[in-house]
Amino acid sequence: MKKTLLFLVLILFKTSIFSQEFKREKYNFNSDWKLKTGDSKNAESLGFNDNSWKKITLPHAYNQEEAFEKDIEHLTTGIVWYRKKFKLPKGIKDQKIFLEFEGIRQAGIIYINGHKVGMHENGVMAFGFDISDLIKPFPQENIVALRIDNDWKYKEQSTGVPYQWNNTNFNANYGGIPKNVFLHITSKLYQTLPLYSNLKTTGVYIYPSKIDIQAESAVINAETEIRNEFESAKTVEYDVIIEDLEGKKVAYFSGEKTTIAPNETKLLKANSLLNNLHFWSWGYGYLYTVKTILKVDGKIVDEVSTKTGFRKTAFAEGQFWLNDRVLQIKGYAQRTSNEWPAIGMSVPAWMSDFSNKLIVEGNGNLVRWMHVTPWKQDIESCDRVGLLQAMPAGDAEKDAQGDTWKQRVNLMRDAIIYNRNNPSIIFYESGNESISEAHMHEMKSLRETYDPFGGRAIGSREMLDSQEAEYGGEMLYINKSARKPLWATEYSRDEGMRKYWDEFSPPFHKEGDGPLYRGTPASDYNHNQDRHAIENVVRWYDYYRERPGTGKRVNSGGVNIIFSDSNTHHRGESNYRTSGEVDAMRIPKDGYWAHQVMWDGWVDVEKHRTHIMGHWNYTDNVVKNIYVVSTAPKVELFVNGISQGFGKRSSEFLFTFENITWKSGTIKAIGYNENGTILSEDQKITAGEPSQIKLKLITQPQGMLADGADTALIEVELIDKNGNRCPISNDMISFSLNGPASWLGGIAQGPKNYILSKEIPVENGVNRVMIQSLAKAGKITISAQALGLKQTELSFETKTAETKNGLSIELPGNNLASNLERGPTPKTPSYAQKRIPVNILNAVSPSNNNDTYKSYDDNELTEWRNNGNIATGSITYTLSKPSIVNEAVIKFTGWRTKIYPIRILADGKEVFKGNTTQSLGYITIPLEPVLAEKITIELIGANTEKDGFSKIVEVDPTKELDLYKDKTSVDATGQLRIVEIEFYEKIK
What we know:
Elements: H1 2-19, E1 25-28, E2 33-37, E3 54-56, E4 60-61, E5 79-86, E6 96-101, E7 107-112, E8 115-120, E9 127-130, E10 142-149, E11 176-177, E12 181-186, E13 189-191, E14 204-212, E15 217-228, E16 234-243, E17 249-254, E18 258-260, E19 265-274, E20 288-296, E21 299-308, E22 313-316, E23 319-322, E24 325-326, E25 329-335, H2 349-361, E26 366-370, H3 376-385, E27 388-392, H4 402-419, E28 425-429, H5 437-450, E29 457-459, E30 488-491, H6 529-544, E31 557-561, H7 590-598, E32 610-612, E33 623-630, E34 634-639, E35 642-646, E36 648-650, E37 654-661, E38 666-672, E39 678-685, E40 692-698, E41 705-706, E42 711-719, E43 732-738, E44 741-745, E45 759-761, E46 766-773, E47 779-785, E48 792-797, E49 799-800, E50 835-838, E51 840-844, E52 864-865, E53 874-892, E54 898-899, E55 901-906, E56 909-915, E57 923-939, E58 944-945, H8 967-971, E59 977-986
Parallel strand pairs: 25-26, 25-31, 26-27, 27-28, 28-29, 30-31, 41-49
Antiparallel strand pairs: 1-12, 2-3, 2-5, 4-11, 5-10, 6-9, 6-12, 7-8, 7-10, 13-15, 14-15, 15-19, 16-17, 16-18, 16-20, 20-21, 22-23, 23-24, 32-33, 33-37, 34-35, 34-38, 36-37, 38-39, 40-42, 42-46, 43-45, 43-47, 44-46, 47-48, 50-59, 51-53, 52-59, 53-57, 53-59, 54-58, 55-56, 55-57
Helix pairs in contact: 2-3, 4-5, 6-7
């Protein structure tokens, strides 16, 4: 009897313990680390003495202070150790403990309390370990240690194969632990983490279905993978709560009860219709919190909060739709490191928002991260600011085979699982270069397995004729399609430093001057700001001209390379890349404002803008061209109120005013419509001599945190007596810092790029410097001094950051607000139809007649060509009905090199005669409008060959992106070769 009573008491005791609600915790694990460069014997052991090691707060790459001081190839590599001592909270016993790393570079072995837990090698993705059996309960101390190797030539241990993306061109090597780390404590019945490598788990998956944009509703689906590590089966209730951006509960629903056996893993599902939805959109980072809850006997045993957004996508007819509205892609191909001077990529979350929101404010809508998967902080930042993303796996510049390909597949699998709840990810990129159809199918199968309902297209660069890829597009060139969207994955490689306005402004840099690039002149990589911005306008117009609304076959946009100056492969005079539309401290160049003007709309221009390039501070006798970027069809320029006439318009948006004489005062540009109504305007004034130093503090909204990792930006500006920036000032500023912070400084042209220096010049009247907090709060004072000017001071207090025993409940970025400035997706069309395509019924030719269809088959990897004789250089198209064709749009083979002397006939009447022009894709030929059923293209002379874009240099000089060029074609003078041809008539 006593034994029976004792057994019942034990059963009741165990039941009562389990029925108590358990609060799952995710801790910030970034504090209280130490690091030591070089290898250290037995550094993983408990008794190892690390008193002399450097104290740091993560994220922190051990060589991050070299960012922008050293060329990417010279960044320090080798072995580094990280160690941390910590204690679990009181009362944590017999629970599950997981360690999550957002990523390390390149490869590391992880130890807990002297025991090897495992290793991670790909240098990119997040990973995690179950450390439950190795952790000591409170008040005992635990030690985590990592031995990390960031060698450029590191090879995977199991295969002996290096990682394709561990590359000295594009993947800046900030070694160690440059990303965040978290500690998770859960019940033994828990929802898994989305960390497939090592843990082999997939976590929570939230997605909408049956989306109705007009009705503002969708069915919200919540799936979660659960695991039972109790010794007995459990019957689980599954509840879902959805909270809006303000934290208000807007939905509550449940799935079916489920019994899960010991050590079993199961997938739970629940869904419900949700009305009055705010759909995530461009510049409208509306996010919901979805809480997935496990209950046993009515008590909560696990709860996971997932921040996500809901949106609708479609990819067809050569176009991309977001929330039922066509969006032409306009944005940047940005290096995934997204780095800053002297700190590399390891910036606090608010700085990711600061940088990514600048793209949105400049009317960019998509960032294509280059070559490798971005870290979670940047992905979540894009969610908040409303910036679409293309997410790669890992690649260099080509397809891969064998173990190298398996490495990429595994990385893409992990990246999809880890990031599939982030609404800003729209494209999965399988390669930075075309891949085989078999490989594309394999990548597509990954997407179908792990993210079948996420509304994301998977593809790769190029893949123009692929039946597997769901999007594509070349680099530098203009592609069109009536099927999947084709957008340029990078264009406009030119470089230019922010310091160089033009040849008339200090330091009077002559356009194009600078060192050779690979032994050849590099004028396109040593631009002044005005020429760099002009090139951006010219290059964008190629895509804008073929935008949705211009026909059946359209271009879906493109991304300019790059957004911010980068510590990666470069061609100009600096040891870092200066292609950015903002500099490394995110100060805009003229190219940024040019894009802001051109890109203000989903497809067509929706808001008119005008921007005058440069400044208005010159000296007497300066006569120069003034360039204006405007969306208006006419722009008039005024100097001190006197008209200088209307500008010469080119590339749609560029207006040139030649030989304008400078006079102190005001220059003003006014854009008009055809009827003379003012659409927009801009003006610049002549600033006086520097009168004072202006300091501006930029921090996260709650102020600078004293956590040893937070940063503050201090903008320094030289202004005249009226408060105007002095735009030609390059004066030296001397700074001093007092208080609990370390100096990171900024960047400028000069010795070692002034990295970490407390003496740094402004450039064009402005610069920025950065400081990093220490792990104690206090008053910080920054003072700035310039020759002949009064010293200026800026003081502020840092905020205490609460940590206990190496743990904090304050998660990075958790309190940052969403950007909602653009508002929800408009429900009106994003473009007006510009012209009507005329369908081609068939085509005939005296040469290669069986291939004539290839010239209008909507496949840019096929062509029709004659036999090389001028006499056979003709092709006749029969239209589907007699039409008044006024334009022919043609992509000729050898588009950037060949000139074809042709004439075009409409039912035998000559409607065009002349030479074709070189292009980066398509040319538009205006035709005399004649009602006709047959259009004939005739070659009337010998071809000539000269590269019209010789300064546009390929990454691989042996690669030929004009896929039809061959050795014989250069000398063949009687060829007519057409890749694609389209005919259009005006809208009546």
